[in-house]
Write a structure and sequence with these properties.
12-stranded antiparallel barrel; mainly beta; 251 residues; Porin
Length: 251
């Protein structure tokens, strides 16, 4: 229990710190940037950006798995600098037997442009606080995307620890702005292929479709709502599931 509380404390503290930093150094920028703007000069994007968010979902679904078929809260925090992003994410399942803080993920991602491509590579550390054994797993991934119509993307995830397998996702998404208030709608679809990652066997595993409606609340705070449906392509692994969520983020 002491180890579980340590990870919960780290995530909560990180979320609060990042939220405060984003309010202080976020869209308002530094004093120099504000001075440049006041003089009518274009302020350059900040070298470092931070943010935090909290999402409430009707179910926790991950790569086809219905991890929790109940309402969960998922806080996150991140910091970005020169293509490098470090983020912390957690899942709180209030009605889970035992510890309600069931998962903490730490992700390190590096993304850069290469011509018309966006190339990325990263590492994810998973910590499952509610499991009695095998609480850790580690994953490496590489990805490529083409910004533009449909934003096609491909990512390959290789679990090098307990999951010990490969998951490949093929995705498309396309956002559109509605009206003059900053409202946007982004539908998306992702097809997954699983090769022995947390399952026995290989094959097409799931296809997920969804849409996110996002709108700014002010210069630092955004809100969004989403509806999603994950269709199982292998009933022996997991069922199909529809779920929704709402998110408030600060940056």
């Amino acid at each position: 229990m002491a180890t579980t509380w340590t990870f919960r404390s780290r995530l909560m503290v990180a979320t609060v710190i990042v939220a405060v930093m984003s309010l202080v150094f976020g869209a308002g920028g530094s004093a120099a940037a504000q001075s440049a703007s006041a003089e009518g000069q274009a302020a350059s994007p900040p070298a470092v950006s931070v943010g935090a968010s909290t999402t409430v979902v009707s179910a926790y679904v991950w790569r086809g798995w219905v991890v929790a078929d109940e309402i969960c809260m998922q806080p996150s925090a991140w910091i970005k600098a020169r293509g490098l992003t470090i983020s912390a994410w957690g899942n709180v399942w209030p009605h889970n037997e035992g510890d309600s803080f069931t998962e903490h993920d730490l992700t390190v991602d590096y993304t850069r442009a290469a011509g018309r491509w966006q190339l990325s590579a990263g590492y994810i550390n998973y910590f499952f606080s509610s499991l009695d054994s095998g609480r850790w797993s580690n994953e490496l991934y590489v990805g490529a995307a083409i910004p533009g119509p449909l934003n096609p993307s491909l990512r390959v995830y290789q679990d090098v620890h307990q999951g010990s397998g490969t998951y490949v996702s093929f995705g498309v998404s396309h956002g559109a702005t509605v009206g003059s208030k900053g409202l946007s709608i982004t539908p998306s679809a992702v097809l997954g292929y699983n090769n022995n990652q947390w399952v026995d066997g290989s094959g097409w595993s799931d296809v997920s479709v969804g849409a996110v409606v996002a709108f700014p609340l002010n210069g630092h705070v955004d809100a969004s709502a989403s509806m999603n449906y994950s269709r199982s392509l292998n009933k022996d692994w997991f069922p199909s599931k529809a779920w929704g969520g709402v998110t408030v983020s600060v940056h």
